[in-house]
Write a structure and sequence with these properties.
By secondary structure, the chain is an alpha/beta fold. The chain contains five helices and seven strands, in the order E-H-E-E-E-H-E-H-E-E-H-H.
Length: about 210
């Protein structure tokens, strides 16, 4: 008896940077997601509602998605390259505008970027406990035929409701507590973001809880 073994040679996956690509733009990514909103993995019932949606305070929301079964709307902001302070603030601001315009729906802010550094991941995670916020890392793959595919990996999901509820008394904490738990640099970033938020929500303040800000 003879046994034969067939070995397939697979070419390594080639990833590319969209921000430096000469032919790819943010508008192209918007159109791909607008036509295929299920790529984000938010559910089969999520449909595209609008793109480049004009905002009352100026600017345009990249994408507005809606879950037709649960009346949840997703305010999606896309960033080629790495996310930054402006990207985070823009996402939260547009989420806030849309939830005030349509209070009958639940709203979720969605950040999409090619890179979410550990620094900004920490910042986003802190806001995630108070704001329904999700983050996706976008990876572009160049296929052998030259076409480009997009892969979206969820790096931050909605905070579980149990995280915000605790029957036991909460330990009193303050800024000094958080400087020991995190770092002064992260808190400085939070202060900068809070300052920008206060430009459209003057009453917004930080709450130094034990498990989240």
């Amino acid at each position: 008896m003879t046994t034969s073994l067939a070995v397939a040679n697979f070419a390594p996956i080639k990833t590319i940077n969209l921000k430096s690509h000469p032919e790819i733009s943010e508008a192209w990514v918007q159109q791909v997601l607008f036509e295929n909103p299920t790529l984000l993995g938010l559910g089969a019932s999520v449909k595209s509602r609008d793109k480049e949606r004009r905002q009352t305070a100026g600017g345009r929301l990249d994408l507005l998605l809606e879950d037709e079964e649960s009346d949840v709307r997703y305010e999606v902001e896309i960033q080629l390259g790495a996310t930054d302070e402006k990207h985070i603030i823009r996402t939260i601001e547009y989420w806030d505008i849309e939830r005030k315009r349509f209070p009958g729906c639940d709203h979720v802010a969605v950040i999409v970027a090619e890179e979410i550094t550990s620094r900004f991941f920490n910042v986003i995670s802190l806001f995630n406990s108070a704001i329904p916020l999700m983050a996706f890392k976008m990876t572009a793959i160049e296929n052998p035929d030259g076409s480009i595919g997009l892969l979206f990996t969820k790096v931050l999901d909605l905070a579980p409701s149990s995280q915000l509820e605790d029957d036991e008394p909460t330990e009193q904490t303050d800024r000094n507590y958080w400087e020991k738990q995190s770092s002064k640099k992260v808190l400085q970033d939070i202060d900068n973001i809070l300052h920008l938020i206060q430009s459209f929500e003057p009453k917004a303040q930080l709450s130094y809880n034990k498990f989240y800000l």
